[in-house]
Amino acid sequence: MEKTWNNKAWFFVLPVLLLVAFSAVIPLMTVVNYSVQDTFGNNQFFWAGTEWFTEILTSSRFHDALMRNLLFSAIILAIEVPLGILVALAMPKKGIWVSVCLVLMALPLLIPWNVVGTIWQVFARTDIGLLGYAVASMGINYNYGQNPLDAWVTVIVMDVWHWTSLVVLLCYAGLVSIPDAYYQAAKIDGASRWAVFRYIQLPKMGRVLLIAVLLRFMDSFMIYTEPFVVTGGGPGSSTTFLSIDLVKMAVGQFDLGPAAAMSLVYFLIILLLSWVFYTAMTNVGADKAPKRDQL
Amino acid sequence: MIDLSWMAWTWPTAIFFVAIFGLIALMGVWEYVSPGGHPRVGVLRFETTRGDRLFVSLLGSAFLCLGWLWATDLSLWYALVLCAVFFVLVFSLV
Amino acid sequence: MTATEPTRQNEPMPGPGHSEAALQSREEMKSGRFRLKALVPTIYIIFLLFPVYWLISLSFKTNQEILSGLTYWPRNFTLHNYSVIFNDPTWYETYINSMTYVVMNMVISVAVALPAAYAFSRYRFLGDKHLFFWLLTNRMAPPAVFALPFFQLYSAFGLIDTHIAVALAHCLFNVPLAVWILEGFMSGVPKEIDETAYIDGYSFPRFFFRIFMPLIASGIGVAAFFCFMFSWVELLIARTLTVTDAKPIAAAMTRTSSATGLDYGVLTAAGVLTIIPGAIVIWFVRNHIAKGFALGRV
Predict the structure, then answer these.
(1) Considering only CB atoms, which chain C residues are within 8 Å of B31?
(2) Which overall architecture, per CATH, does domain A60-294 show?
């Protein structure tokens, strides 16, 4: 759509600007102020310079949390994206079953995050949970409260359960937007199932897949509630991801300075990743537009 | 007047934010005087405007400073020189 | 693709009727494979529903039955756990608290997002793309980063433990979400409609409320639903900003579970109650779920 240049449109955006500035810019400014100072409470602040940043950047606690979080995000993406594509491809395309599938699949997405944690906390217990009981009766010594590996597996399975549907829904939306003519052409050409996927479905899903990867990466990078409810960041600190560590520091220990410095480093990483994904997203869209004209 | 003591303002951070907002305002004025944002395709191989280049410079500078703090014990003022070089590079190449 | 070009030119394109019949016969031919294909979503949905079933099943059991050993369905079916919640004000008031701030947030988010989304979908203006990106970064920002400054900010305004504080704080991610979703829907409405209305002598507010809003009614519904949902599922900020008067049900769950030595029956019953609002409304937005979760970009 051709848009007209009109700077008066700013007045329409003004309410959003003011509201989001109030709830995003003022807190961020405060975080910057805290990050260069030390406090002992009572609103008494002392200049600390870049001390906290140096401390955070060189502390193994932060490095470990960051590495754990990156590993977690990588595993999540490696499982959820292929699984999501597979389920989306196998979903029915017409009839009442489409609606039933969509509604049932979306259900985990609408459950409050701490309830997701509670569900899995109970479900994975060996004494009262179905999953834990089944695993234990297979003779596996499974205890997510004691064994770090079991805790990781539980948290990852929980996230797959919680969020794979998002990938499925997005891929499905991309798939149904492919015109029937494409499949007909492929049929005439005698294209194999793999060729149809590789040259028709995957390129058409490209844009939505990018959004899916963006959202899954970002949300797994800031995950807090679900693992916190299930494992509390433990055993030890084996499932302490960035957000859990940050909240522990800020709200638990009330270390304003280090917590603020860590928030800023965390936020800058998020900002960089958002920008990379956003640029990729807009440029993928821009690549597609001229092609449509050529067809 | 609302009590702002909880925000714990200091002169350096105040100057920092005034500088950032000043840059954004300057960008606005520049865009108003010569609209279009001078889009071009640079070394990153996608189209960027002046605003994009400013954002890349600022974000890159932030990471340069963090890297400086992580790698050396030297004063951060040296890193600022590096940032200035980075600014020039981004505005001429990207 | 180029190698197959001649074939396509020689053969006439099959008509829609033809292709439908062909597809049908193909499906009948491969009905064995078709059933196999249906297996994947079926297994996936079963995997999704098992934990939910377990939650519901536990909520109808007595605590004694839960702890005495594993039973696959409630042997002594009881509504006791639910009656505990509905008879205890400290429980059901948290439910009302959650509803209150969620609805407040929904109204605020959609109200401010409507004009902004209209501006983004219809006009180009100074810094529009950067503004759009900045809104996105707020959706991506971790709530953990904002928990502490939010606490300080709302303390300074004396708003701690009020519903409006949580509602405003949730605007951080819900306003960007609403703007993105609505912009997606509004871009689907042709601009000629605006122009025709102006030629017909409609003023802008009259056009916007009488013609434009009915056209994107489903979009407004979807945006409202997603604001509701994301405010409803969020806990970290809501818990940080409340003490007792505006405490959300999610926070009540964490507290009670530790205080009374894990009352699993009541805990799971409260969990079931928090799933219900989403489960009820989901049917109405089923065709737009993907669009909502993808920030209107599908």
Answers:
(1) 126-127
(2) Orthogonal Bundle (1.10)
